[in-house]
Design goal:
By secondary structure, the protein is an alpha+beta fold. The protein folds into three domains: about 35-135, Beta-Lactamase, CATH 3.30.450; about 185-280; about 280-445, Heat Shock Protein 90 (2-Layer Sandwich), CATH 3.30.565.10. Helix content is about 55%, strand content about 15%. The chain is built from ten helices and twelve strands. It has helices at about 5-35, 40-75, 95-105, 140-180, 195-225, 230-245, 250-275, 290-305, 325-340, 400-410, and strands at about 80-85, 110-115, 115-120, 130-135, 285-290, 310-315, 320-325, 350-355, 360-365, 415-420, 425-430, 440-445. Strands 10-11-9-8-6-12 form a six-stranded mixed β-sheet. Strands 1-4-3-2 form a four-stranded antiparallel β-sheet, with helices on both faces. A two-stranded antiparallel ribbon has the order 5-7. Helix 5 (about 195-225) runs antiparallel to helix 7 (about 250-275). It starts with a helix and ends with a strand.
Length: about 450
C-alpha cells in the first residue's frame, strides 16, 4: 500500500477494532465476576443470610418475613430463606427448583432462568439457604449500538486527522511537480508551524533561490545575445580593415576601441548578473548610508567639475540600513553618475538623505532634459536608452540604472524615477535598521 492517507486510516480503524474486541473480552469476565459467587456481592449475601437466619431463630416466620420485606425495599429484588430441603421458611412453599438451578452452575456465574437470575448462598452448617432472585444484568449486546456510535465518532476524527496530515503533503507534492515542470513561481501557500510547515518553508526558500538564479541566467543570455551583435559586427569590420585599409594604425586603433567597448559591456552584464545572483553568497551587515553617500559624492565631484556642474548633499548624522555595502555603493554611484552625465553646465545635482518612518530615502535630482513620461516605467530596464539625449554615444550601455534597481530590490527597497520639471528625480527608498535613530540634518557637502 503506497498511499500514506490509506495507511493512516487503516491503522486507525485497526486500532479501533482491536480496542472494541478487547473491551468485550475484558467486560465479560468482569461482569461474570460481579454476578458470581466470588464477586463483590458474596460478602453482602453472607451478611444477609446471617441476619435472616437470626431473625428466623429469634422471631420465627413473622420476624423473617419483615426482614425479607425490608431487604426488598432496599434492593428492589426478592429474597427467600429456605431450609436444606428447599422449603420456604416464610410461606412453607417448596422452592427446591431454585436450589437445583443454582447447583447446576457448579459454582460458576449464574445464568438467567425464566428471565431471572437466581443466586443462592448456603450457611456453614447447610441448614439455611438465602436465595436472591434478580433481573438479569444488561447484556453487552445491548451496549453495542453505543459502542458503534463511539466507533463512528472516533473514525471521523481519524479521517480528519489523516486529511490534516496528508492534504498539505499533497499540496506540497503538487507545488514540487509544477516547479519541476518549469513553473518557477510555484510555491506552497499554507502556513503551518509544525514539521510539515517547516518543510514547506524550506521548499519555498529553495524555490525562491533557484528562481533567482535561473532568472538571472536567462536575463544574461538574452542581454548578451541582444547586445553583443552590434559590437561584434563592428569588431569584425575593424579586423577586416586592418588587412585592407591603407592606414593600418587607424584601423588597429578603431579595433582597440571596439574591444574596449565590448569589454566594458561584458563587465556591465556580469555586474547585473552578480547583483541578482545567489543571495546566500552576499554579505549582510549594518551600513551607514550617509557615510557611503558622502564618500561617493566626494568621488564624483571631479567628474562633475569637468562637466561644469556641482553636487550638493544634505544628509543625516546617522542613517543605518542592513545589506551588502558593495551593492549599495554601486547602486548609489550608478544613479549619481547618471545624474551628473546629463546635468547641464552651471547647474547642481542635488543629493538629499532623510528618514521617513521606518525607511531611509535618498533623492538624487538633476536639472537636465528629463525623460518623457511614457518612457519612465522603462527607465530601469536593461539596455534602455532615451533616443534623443541618452544614447550609446554618451558613453553608457544602458545598464547603470538597471544595476541600481536590482540592487535596491535585493535589499527589499524600491527605486522610483519621476520628472521634476526641470530634470529627473530618482528616489531610492531602503528599510532602516530598527533601533538606530536617524536625526539631525547636516550640510555635509556643497558644490
Amino acid at each position: 500500500m503506497r498511499s500514506l492517507y490509506a495507511r493512516i486510516l487503516l491503522w486507525c480503524f485497526g486500532t479501533l477494532l482491536f480496542s472494541l474486541f478487547a473491551f468485550f473480552a475484558i467486560s465479560r469476565p468482569i461482569q461474570d465476576r460481579a454476578a458470581g459467587r466470588r464477586g463483590p456481592f458474596e460478602g453482602m449475601h453472607a451478611l444477609e443470610l446471617d441476619q435472616a437466619r437470626q431473625a428466623y431463630l429469634d422471631g420465627g416466620s413473622p420476624r423473617l418475613a419483615a426482614y425479607l420485606e425490608q431487604l426488598r425495599g432496599y434492593f428492589g429484588v426478592e429474597h427467600f430463606l429456605l431450609d436444606a430441603q428447599g422449603r420456604d421458611l416464610v410461606s412453607g412453599a417448596d422452592r427446591a427448583e431454585m436450589l437445583r438451578a443454582e447447583r447446576d452452575e457448579m459454582g460458576g456465574p449464574p445464568r438467567p432462568v425464566n428471565g431471572r437470575m437466581i443466586m443462592a448462598t448456603a450457611s456453614l452448617d447447610g441448614r439455611f439457604h438465602l436465595v436472591v432472585i434478580a433481573p438479569p444484568p444488561l447484556p453487552l449486546s445491548n451496549l453495542l449500538p453505543y459502542y458503534l456510535l463511539v466507533l463512528a465518532a472516533v473514525a471521523i476524527l481519524c479521517w480528519v486527522l489523516a486529511a490534516y496530515i496528508v492534504s498539505p503533503l499533497r499540496s506540497l507534492a503538487g507545488a514540487v511537480d509544477r516547479f519541476g515542470r518549469g513553473d518557477l513561481s510555484a510555491r506552497v501557500r499554507f502556513k503551518r508551524r509544525d514539521e510539515i510547515g517547516n518543510l514547506a518553508q524550506s521548499f519555498n526558500a529553495m524555490a525562491e533561490r533557484i528562481e533567482t538564479l535561473l532568472t538571472a541566467e536567462r536575463r544574461l543570455l538574452q542581454d548578451v545575445s541582444h547586445e553583443l551583435r552590434s559590437p561584434l559586427a563592428r569588431l569584425s569590420f575593424a579586423a577586416e580593415l586592418t588587412r585592407t585599409a591603407p592606414d593600418r594604425d587607424a584601423a588597429v586603433a578603431r579595433m582597440t576601441k571596439e574591444i574596449e567597448r565590448l569589454a566594458k559591456l561584458v563587465g556591465a552584464l556580469l555586474e547585473v548578473t552578480r547583483a541578482e545572483g545567489d543571495a546566500a553568497s552576499r554579505r549582510s551587515e549594518d551600513v551607514r548610508l550617509d557615510e557611503v553617500v558622502a564618500e561617493i559624492v566626494q568621488d564624483c565631484r571631479l567628474e562633475a567639475e569637468v562637466r561644469g556642474c556641482r553636487i550638493t548633499f544634505d544628509g543625516f548624522s546617522s542613517a543605518v540600513v542592513c545589506g551588502d555595502p558593495e551593492l549599495l555603493r554601486r547602486a548609489v554611484e550608478n544613479v549619481l553618475r547618471n545624474a551628473v552625465r546629463y546635468a547641464p553646465a552651471a547647474s547642481a545635482v542635488e543629493v538629499n538623505l532623510e528618514a521617513r518612518g521606518t525607511s531611509v530615502d535618498l533623492a538624487i535630482r538633476d536639472y537636465g532634459p528629463g525623460v518623457p513620461d511614457a518612457l519612465l516605467p522603462k527607465l530601469f530596464d536593461p539596455f534602455f536608452r532615451v533616443d534623443d539625449s541618452r544614447d550609446s554615444a554618451t558613453g553608457g550601455v544602458g545598464l547603470g540604472l538597471a544595476i541600481a534597481c536590482r540592487a535596491v530590490r535585493l535589499h527589499h527597497g524600491e527605486l522610483v524615477a519621476e520628472n521634476a520639471h526641470p530634470g529627473l528625480l530618482v528616489t531610492m527608498r531602503l528599510p532602516a535598521v530598527s533601533g538606530h535613530a536617524i536625526a539631525g540634518v547636516n550640510e555635509l557637502a556643497s558644490g
